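Contributing new complexes? Match this layout with glutamine.
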Amino acid sequence: MITMVEMELNIINMYPDILNMYGDIGNLICIKQRAMWRGIKVNIQEITLSNETTKIDENTDMVLIGGGSDNGQTVVANNLLKQKQSVENYIENNGVLLAICGSYQMFGQTYIDGDGNNIPCSEIFDIETISQKERLIGDIVLKSNINLSKHHDLDTIIGFENHGGRTYHKYDKLGTVEAGFGNNGKDEEEGMIYNNFIGSYLHGPLLPKNPHLADYMILKALQNKYEIDSLEQLNDEIEINAHKSRVNTILTK
Ligand code: GLN
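Output block (do not edit by hand):
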């Protein structure tokens, strides 16, 4: 049987130079550190404004994309459009992909910004986003719609949101909103799950605040190429206490 020390994770981090709202780069740092603590080798490739040559392909195990301004979103949408077929294949083949806020919006069919302009999207999913002037800002707590109990006895996901966009879709949600706004501030749904694609409005950054979600993604990525059913447990006492404390504070505000 293969041990974790012999495992490798190939990660593509898309546009950290322009899509790093509220420290979304922390998602990459978290995945990398949690994998490395287990002896898993992590190979990171970046797509940036000055080097867009890296492509998502069959060697990619995980893709991370942060949130940003409408301009940054347009850049990521154009990149996704250029490699649309590979991105669709990657998602259909259970590739792990995390898209935060503006990037999550860019996986949809339409995004209408605050001035009524139609910003081109990658048109990969049936997601629609329409912006309003009044922004949805603040701490947010979700009850997870995916089973994270394998990684910790927690079913909450926490983060911070700041978006003008109201997003609507019929896919599975990432979680039910217990405090905050989520996709649109109306239907109590937040984010989206399709295979191992996770779209979410949650900055924070998301994964350091939710190590159980980070481990969920690492396990899914490794399971696409290795026969394993769990990850070695890490000592997350501090992270879990911090998570629970934030949940209590936000829910009792
Ligand atoms: N276009 C997004 C919005 O709805 C950008 C916000 C973000 O990525 N935090 O405001």
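Reviewers usually confirm one structural detail per submission. For this one: Residues 21, 67-68, 70, 73, 101-102, 105, 131, 162-165 surround glutamine (CB under 6 Å).
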